[in-house]
Amino acid sequence: MALDRYGLIGGLVADRPVIVSLILAFGLTALAVAGLGDPDAALRASALIPDLIIAILAYAAIPALLAATAPRRIGLSLLFVALVWTLFVIVPLFAPLADFAPVDYLLSAGATLSALTTLLIVSGPAVGATIRFAFISCASAALGMAGAMGMMEIDRVSGVGAGILATIGFSLGAFVGIGAAADFSMLFARGADTKRAAGVAARYGMAPAIYAAVLAASAFGLGDLFPDKPFDVIALMTASGGAAFLASVAALVATAGALSLRPSIETLAVRENRRQQGFRKFWRPLRRLLPPSSAMAFAAILVVATIAAEFNLAIPAPLGQLAFFAVAASAASLVFLSLRTGVFVLILLFTGSLLLTWFWDAIRAPLLTPQDITATSALAAALFAQLAVAWRDSRNPRLNARETTEAALSDVVPLYFVSVVIGAAAMLAADAAGAWPNGDAASARFLMLAFYGLVTAPALMTTLSRTARHA
Hints:
Layout: H1 7-15, H2 17-35, H3 39-45, H4 49-69, H5 74-94, H6 103-122, H7 124-127, H8 134-154, H9 160-189, H10 194-221, H11 233-260, H12 266-287, H13 292-311, H14 319-335, H15 339-362, H16 370-394, H17 401-433, H18 439-469
Helix pairs in contact: 1-2, 1-10, 1-11, 2-8, 2-11, 4-6, 4-8, 4-17, 5-6, 6-17, 8-9, 8-11, 9-10, 9-11, 9-12, 9-16, 9-17, 10-11, 10-14, 10-16, 12-17, 13-15, 13-18, 14-15, 14-16, 15-16, 15-18, 16-17, 16-18, 17-18
């Protein structure tokens, strides 16, 4: 990785972080206000925007903030977790808070917030410094989401459809910002100073931001996903792609800009190196169980299982969904400048979606709408792209197939895990705010796809690495 160049965007963010962040924040705020300037628009969105933003902050940003400020010692961390549960779960039982919201709603929100905070704190040693910077990405992506919702009002996209688009835009934007934080930690651990590491991370983050916009626009533009509101297809693609791009740029600029102001403390590099060493100790025994021959056999079995699942589906996969898979893979190849990256995304997305659809029907899980399936597929494609890019960057002629897989997973697991938590939290927040009526079930499908990708990726990385070496 070249550390001597960080391009125009990286230079602006690293050299003028405060000015660039303020200009972007002002523009997003103005866009949100402009969209709500019309009294009719304000009436349509007045109950949606504040509730959704507050829920997003409570379910995603605040847990990330609490996890970032938690003590590192085990005893103090346990006391901190107990304090969080007491404050957000026990106190609402006895405090007179009914004037603000129903007690059952406060208890549900408090329990979810506390559980997410506990999960992030417990996983802290495994994800390293990535979680400590996630709050910046979540808060700035929420600001980008507010501006995107104002843009949707201008385009006359409102109601539940706007809530789903905004939630997916926030999640994709948060993924990009968290990715910039992960790149910053990796570059700083490899010897770059904070300013240079932040600039290079901002340059690396532009490709995922563009990919997020393409995913959102193509996912919600292929097919009639909102039959109750006959939106113009161009307006729908503009709204969905614009929401993802605004949230991504906001998260990328704010995260990289804030990190460029961070003092150069060697403790961060030491912790990142310790995290990578700990992951290697954990992964080495598992790596022996996955030789290239076994990985290739697993990949072949996966393809056969996918074909069998397709023939056993009650309803065949819609043409629009298959078209989205093709667009997601093609966009990954073009944006990340790697054909193998597109193949990687296509295999995981196609097999995972079909197998999960069959499994979902088999267990008679709650019925999902086309919006739910499309939204979770878009987020899953973004996650799978993280795995694919990490594998692409780890490929080296001096490394064999299993060593390449180990290097890729060591870099991407923290980013992947934190992104999954934030994405699931955003869906739960939208469900609690009434912006996504089926958000809890969609969150379950998203978690299943994320788990499938993490379990399947090592075998796929090993197989593709072995195939590439013998091509």
